[in-house]
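Reading a protein record of the kind used here takes only a little practice. Think of the row as the fold of the chain written in a discrete alphabet. With that in mind, consider the following protein and its fold in token form:
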Amino acid sequence: MRIITISREYGSGGRELGKRLAGILDFDFYDKEIISALAANKDLDQDYMARTLARGGPQVLETRRSPSGQSVVQVTSLQEQKRVIQMLPSLGRDFVIVGRNADILLKDYQPFNLFVCAEMEAKLRRCAERAAEGENLTLKELERKIRSIDKARYHTRELLTGSGWGVPSAYHLTINTTSWRIPDLAPAVAEFATRWFSSGAAAASGR
């Protein structure tokens, strides 16, 4: 089984890169939304995961009512998400997973670990282009948001794993997307990953 994990700076295009890699390599794809949806099922088991993913991913999230009566997605704990991530290999399928400290949680499976980064100007541009409807942040506000999210990722990893987030030695490949279009970059990364798996580097990294 081949696993690719992607850690990334906010706005660097890591999620898009992961999704394109999964498409090129014919791997399953997991991101925050899919993991959270699976973790919302309290009776999670391998059969449930297989059935759900076979029909194209989670269709229904567990919900609760806010005090105002509005339906909102049930928040799942980090522990529940960790349980989902550590069950994914039991499905026996190759996959790409974005975030969630999966490189640490799945280290026994010798995954290929990527870190995706970019210069602030490029991250600001990407975030502005993909902003949700009605989100009108100034560039200064957007930069604060980017720095805040990355800081939270750093502290979450430190808390859960005791290891550094974004430290080059923790990953097999670090990619700076600043001067790249993700559709142009993805095939090259897919080729690199394929060679990495076939070269025996995966087994060597587990020693």
